[in-house]
Amino acid sequence: MREFTQRLSREDLSRGLQPKELGFGSTHAVDLLNLRPEQEGLQPYSFLRDPFDDGIPTDWPFPQLVEATDSLYLLQETAVEKITESVPWSYTTQDTLDARNTSNSLDIPFGGNQWQVAQAQNSWYAVKGNCVVFNVAPEATYPGDINDAVYVDDQLNPEAACYQKGRYFMGGFTGNFWAGELDTVISDWESNVGIATTQRLEPSENWIAYGSIGGGDFPLWLMRIGSSTPPSQLSAKDKIAEALERNEFGFMPLNV
Questions:
Q1: Threshold 0.70, pTM exceeds
Q2: Residues of the chain below pLDDT 50
Q3: What backbone phi and psi angles, to 5 degrees, belong to 243?
Q4: Which residues, including other chains, have CB under 8 Å from residue 86's CB and lie 6 or more apart?
């Protein structure tokens, strides 16, 4: 049997895995195990250095390391820790305020699932099925906001959140969603537009809620319905009513 030899250059070894569209004759690798292509060729895997000198305690799936609004956070099950990227890294546990009454503190509840984080340019929201934890910029539409404040709401409890094409989405709701002020808002809107009162379909695990494009304050409407929100000084009730009329805010069941 004749043997074929192939000379491999440094350039060949730095090309990495073969894309699907390339056929025979390519010098790309078809399989790599514990190696990665770099400028100097294939290099063995090297372990990442722990940026915390003494490490951090872990209890799967916490903590989760996330980057949001140009800051790094460790999301624990019941705490938010902001990281200072010094040498070594350090972290500070953030105070958590009640989203519905910002003069009070509120603990992040135990339980739930892994954190899912959605972020825009100057705000982020984290959900785990039994609460919403978030941070918004001081100039954002949240009354009394202070820099780096972290807010908690344990009445709105979506399981998923994302920020897609300039719009916040939340989904996977549990509990009595229409209780309290939100039901009043919908009833007032129905009256104003002259339609009969409708039976409320309870948003559940396969429902999403969405806000307007560029509307980073949409989740706040669901938490502080009776509050005015600068700069427009419109109450969240008015904002919800306007958004409903424009079809910029609503709910949708998904086929799952």
A1: yes
A2: 139, 141, 227-234
A3: -65, -35
A4: none
